[in-house]
């Protein structure tokens, strides 16, 4: 099927790529079907694109690509809600939403509310971490360091 995207124009996707977010995302509770789209020649960033509304698209990263010591604990009962057995963590993907700054070096990411996706069942949920040292506007690059 073809969808219109905010940044990549018209894209052809398979139905089995669609990820269902039963409760939507924070602030976008009515938007429940998304697809993750890669960016050509860029292994670090992806788009989480609403398949019904081209203007809703989020830039994602794998947080461990930027923060090797990122450490989160997700409650088992909440993992079960998206059909994830806590013993099967290898079947999930975890992403953080990026907010671009005026320059790439000023960009931030939301480490406080990761997006967790069950790859097998194509279900996702955005979690808000409790008692976490992380923020919603965590600098993507250390101060004074230029991105590659």
What's the total number of strands? 11
What coarse outline follows from CA principal-axis ratios?
A: globular
Output the helix-strand order: EEEEEEHEEEEE
Largest sheet properties = 9 strands, antiparallel
Structural class by SSE content: mainly beta
How would you classify the quaternary structure? single chain
Distance between the termini: 35 Å
Number of helices: 1
Supply Rg.
15 Å
Query: Fraction of residues in helices?
Result: under 10%
Question: What characteristics describe this protein?
Answer:
globular, 3% helix, 9-stranded antiparallel beta sheet, two-stranded antiparallel ribbon, mainly beta, 148 residues
Question: What's the topology here?
Answer:
Blueprint: E1 2-5, E2 9-12, E3 19-20, E4 33-39, E5 42-50, E6 57-61, H1 76-80, E7 92-99, E8 108-109, E9 115-118, E10 123-126, E11 138-139
Question: Care to describe what's here?
Answer:
This protein has one helix and eleven strands, in the order ββββββαβββββ. The chain has one helix at 76-80; strands spanning 2-5, 9-12, 19-20, 33-39, 42-50, 57-61, 92-99, 108-109, 115-118, 123-126, 138-139. The longest helix has 5 residues, at 76-80.
